Amino acid sequence: MKIAQIVTTVVGTPWRELTFVELLTDDGRVGVGEVRMVNKTETLLAAIRELGDRYVIGSDPFDLERIAWGVLWKEYGRAGEVAQSALAAIDIACWDLIGQACGQPVWRLMGGRFRDVVPAYANGWYQGDRDPESIAALARNVSDRGYRALKLDPFGAATADLTASELARSVRIVDAVRGAVGDDTQIMIEMHGRFRSSTAIRVADALEHLSPTWIEEPVPPGNIHGLRNVRRSTPIPIATGERVHELEELAPLLEEGLVDTLQVDMTHFGGLTGIRRVSSWAAAYNVPLAPHNVCGPVGTAANVHFGVATPNYQILEHFNDFADSWVLDLVDGAMTVDAASGGFTVPDRPGLGVRLDRELAAEHPSNGATFNLFAVGWERREGTALTAATAD
């Protein structure tokens, strides 16, 4: 079996573009991968084309390490978001092909079944007015659908600092959510790397009584000094890592104990092959993974397979029940959260078990959507319609 052709399909939504990569083999199989690239879709497509022509066409999809070595070292030396995302889409599609060729679901090829349910938490659900009553009503809807965990960013368009009134408003929102979903539902607090460390510490102190499961990216990625300050100042667990693209970048997070939950995104870290390396290293520090996942149904499927087989797997992020839920129709076999368990059940189809419907995808072409987390009203996820924010 050799890879004979690469087909890319971009699906546009109001706030994200989903890039699907299909690898067609000389014996008629089709493997599929997916990446959601923030505001750089055309750059990603160029990388997939160049790297695919150079290293992927003519390769055996079983030769995953050889393909990864070619992309990351022969060509780029130091990997970044674009190279690792291009490789991820290709790698995930290769795993799909391998599973099909073996007649087995991917999780079985990654070590077999470790768990029967992959826990999930909801994101993208808080698209209403930024007030406690509105957000609490939306949170109840999340809970009613069977989710036992949810995440929100209650801070509006804050950048670096947060005024006293805006901090109070944010706390009221989280307090209302806690009241709506009860103490048995996990609440994750997303900070999106918004704050300097002193502000993040103020926020953590103000939210501690509401028992958040974690605070996420309290300071900008790469600000290790600031992260150390936050770590020393709050007992709330810290989650981070979605904007890490190389193993070397994980060293201070793990070795200095700066992270309680690691959120590496497989679609920006070389795919299933890349994130397996991360999980093994994190396990040595007793750190679980809760992968960042803003993908549609293919990226989600890859994450579910990984979660089934990975011991130090905590929970999976999921947008597709609330933001652009129609993307589930883009594939045959889309995986959805089971209301009885609050997670994804174990898939049983060979490979990833999903197939892209190109005709339906063509009805939602690339639209150049951009997303700005520092724009007023970003939480409505209306993409290019957002208004630029003014710094505090």
TrEMBL record:
SMART domains linked to this entry: MR_MLE
Keyword Lyase tagged: yes
Mandelate racemase/muconate lactonizing enzyme C-terminal domain residues: 132-237
Organism superkingdom: Bacteria
Pfam families listed in its UniProt record: MR_MLE_C, MR_MLE_N
Keyword Lyase: yes
Keywords, comma-separated and alphabetical: Lyase
PANTHER family the UniProt entry points to: D-GALACTONATE DEHYDRATASE (PTHR48080:SF2), D-GALACTONATE DEHYDRATASE-RELATED (PTHR48080)
The protein's name in its UniProt record: Mandelate racemase/muconate lactonizing enzyme family protein
Species for this entry: Microbacterium candidum
Lineage, broadest ranks: Bacteria, Bacillati, Actinomycetota, Actinomycetes, Micrococcales
